[in-house]
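Good morning C.,

I know you're traveling, so I'll keep this short. The sequence:
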Amino acid sequence: MAIERTYVGNSRLWALGLDAIDYAYDGEQIHIQDLATKLSVARAQRVRDEMNPLSEMMRARNRQSEKYGFLLAKINKMQANFDPEAQGNTQADEPLTAEDADLLQKIGYDAKADEKPSKALVQEYLQAVKAKIDSLNNRSQLDMNRAQSLMETSDGSYETASNLLTALVESRGTTISAIGS
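The tokens, ready to paste straight into the viewer:
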């Protein structure tokens, strides 16, 4: 996208002693109003091009957070079912599922499906899953800030184009009034 400005020597305005500028967009002559519109559309498209992958990444992270949330609830339940008076290496009442083990492996534990973890291991899992959820939430917040920034950029683009067009209309009206006087 190349924008060029050229002075026009044979325009009607130049004949009246006023400078005129034509614009070329990708090598084609274009009116300033059309240029402003094209630039706004191009900027909005760039925002959409950034928003689409960002939105998909946010949805994937939300699905991941949901899975870890379910795992956290299960681990909390395991911990609540331990006898507080029990000493030694007591085991959880219910085993880990394959999905539970997979999620725990992703955060660095050698968990196995159908394993009944010990009380100490359940406590470790609990802390690790909470930390993972916090990390996912922090990244989600950064993504939300980026999305908000992109939307503000898009809004600013349309506002700038609108202001430019308003200024052009006013300028054209002033020029025409000056010519008529």
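Safe travels,
E.
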